[in-house]
Amino acid sequence: MNRREFLQTTAAVGAVICSGSLLLPQDALAVTNMADFWLKSRFLEARRADTGEKQLIRFYDQQYGYDPYGYRAACWLLRDAKDRNAMVSVDIGLLNLVYAIQEWARMSGRTNPLITVNSAYRTPRRNAVIEGAARHSLHIQGRAIDITMRGVDLRQIEAMAKYFKVGGVGIYRSFIHLDTGRVRSWRG
Ligand SMILES: [Zn+2]
Predict the structure, then answer these.
(1) Domain range list for the chain
(2) What is the pLDDT of residues 67-108, one digit of tens each?
């Protein structure tokens, strides 16, 4: 699945792309059958590091497609809890990317690869006071997320994210940054 396709929102696209044998970037996780990866319902299981709230969100239904309630739940979970719980419409491509990585981990046998969200949407006001944050950070557009995943080390997440070529992948000491901007990578 390439970047353009990833950012589109039709189910059929993914079904075609991922129907072959797959997907073994070095240092990532081994999965032998990804045939229905983009056909089935898409779940995110994540908790926020700051508030501790945890949710299992289905944002895409196998039969009916994108679920507006699930999508809204995802936007709420990824809100800026430190600035009046401000919400934004999170990039669906970002949700798909995070789903893809987590589902990949599930399918490779990781039990409960819970995602912890360190930071997702940030209001411009709050982004401006975060040390080291880029002024035009994609976090302020709902197009970036900083995560860790239980049982999956950052290098594995990095390898999987790079495989999909969706956008930026930045490794930091204690989390990985993923976004849907220009395809690039760095170490923070
Ligand atoms: Zn970030």
Answers:
(1) 21-187
(2) 999 999 999 999 999 999 999 999 999 999 999 999 988 888
Q: What is d(CA 106, CA 148) in angstroms, rounded to the nearest whole number?
A: 15
The sheet with strand 65-66 has its strands ordered as 65-66, 54-61, 42-48, 115-119, 144-149, 176-179, 168-171, 184-187
Residue 75 CA, ligand 1 centroid: distance in Å? 16
Distance (Å) from CA 133 to ligand 1 centroid: 8
Q: Which residues surround ligand 1, an ion (CB under 5 A)?
A: 144, 146, 177
E strand or H helix that includes residue 96: helix 92-107
CATH level 3 topology of 21-187: Muramoyl-pentapeptide Carboxypeptidase; domain 2 (3.30.1380)
φ, ψ of residue 98 in degrees (nearest 5)? -65, -40
pLDDT at 4: 56
Per-residue pLDDT tens digits for 145-180: 999 999 999 999 999 999 888 999 999 999 999 999
Burial per residue of 90-106, b for 16 or more beta-carbon CB atoms within 10 angstroms, e otherwise: bbbbbbbbbbbbbbbbb
Q: For the whole model, what pTM was predicted?
A: 0.84
